UniProtKB/TrEMBL annotation:
<keyword id="KW-1133">Transmembrane helix</keyword>
<feature type="transmembrane region" description="Helical">
    <location>
        <begin position="75"/>
        <end position="95"/>
    </location>
</feature>
<feature type="transmembrane region" description="Helical">
    <location>
        <begin position="131"/>
        <end position="153"/>
    </location>
</feature>
<feature type="transmembrane region" description="Helical">
    <location>
        <begin position="107"/>
        <end position="125"/>
    </location>
</feature>
<feature type="transmembrane region" description="Helical">
    <location>
        <begin position="165"/>
        <end position="192"/>
    </location>
</feature>
<feature type="transmembrane region" description="Helical">
    <location>
        <begin position="30"/>
        <end position="55"/>
    </location>
</feature>
<keyword id="KW-0812">Transmembrane</keyword>
<protein>
    <recommendedName>
        <fullName>Yip1 domain-containing protein</fullName>
    </recommendedName>
</protein>
<keyword id="KW-0472">Membrane</keyword>
<dbReference type="InterPro" id="IPR006977">
    <property type="entry name" value="Yip1_dom"/>
</dbReference>
<feature type="domain" description="Yip1">
    <location>
        <begin position="7"/>
        <end position="181"/>
    </location>
</feature>
<dbReference type="Pfam" id="PF04893">
    <property type="entry name" value="Yip1"/>
</dbReference>
<dbReference type="GO" id="GO:0016020">
    <property type="term" value="C:membrane"/>
</dbReference>
């Protein structure tokens, strides 16, 4: 069912959101059947890409991470994604009453998961060791995620489009703040000795 919705969001997102909003799932079910699998994609791809294929800015000089230093980063990234998705869902749940929506925390997590699916899938590009291509693919996924967010909020939350636009903008702002916080935490961790070991190939 999840894959059917996933492809439906690619081809006819508004109709698919209308179908998704009728489903009821527990937090455990969403995590075990959706998020736990999706969140594995970017860390695994980056682990393999950075240790086996290396990274390159223009396709000539390649840089590799040692497996010993990359594995803890991949594991940390995986759990950061799981926690981050829950926090995004909780913030959505916390804001919904302000905008006249009526959705449970479980439904907010389901909405956040489906909205973020393009970004999770774009993590596969981490296997390809060319930085400019990776950035292009991820930015395209971010753009489609934003589209799903703005298209889905009014339908999924059963609110008028004008309120849905403001609600979606608020969710997007929270997501950007979370991203900046994650980047700042990464810099701090690297500065105190958790930086990866880089090898030129």
């Amino acid at each position: 069912m999840y894959f059917q919705h996933m492809f439906g969001l690619l081809y006819h997102p508004k109709a698919e959101w209308d179908s998704i909003k009728k489903e009821q799932h527990s937090l455990t079910h969403i995590y075990l059947t959706h998020l736990a699998i999706l969140a594995l994609i970017p860390p695994f791809a980056l682990l393999v890409g950075t240790t086996q294929f290396g990274w390159s800015f223009i396709g000539k000089e390649f840089y590799y991470l040692t497996f010993e230093s990359a594995l803890p980063l991949a594991v940390g990234f995986y759990f950061a994604l799981l926690v981050g998705m829950y926090l995004m869902a909780y913030c959505t749940y916390w804001m919904e009453k302000t905008f006249g929506a009526d959705a449970s925390l479980e439904r907010c997590l389901l909405f956040t998961t489906y909205t973020s699916t393009p970004m999770f899938l774009s993590g596969l590009i981490g296997l390809v060791p060319i930085l400019w291509l990776d950035v292009f693919v991820v930015m395209a996924a971010v753009a489609y995620t934003v589209y799903l967010l703005y298209a889905g909020v009014p339908i999924f939350m059963n609110i008028p489009e004008e309120r849905g636009f403001i609600f979606a903008s608020s969710i997007l702002t929270v997501g950007l703040c979370a991203l900046v916080g994650l980047m700042a935490a990464t810099v701090v961790l690297w500065s105190i000795g958790f930086s990866p070991q880089i090898i030129m190939g």
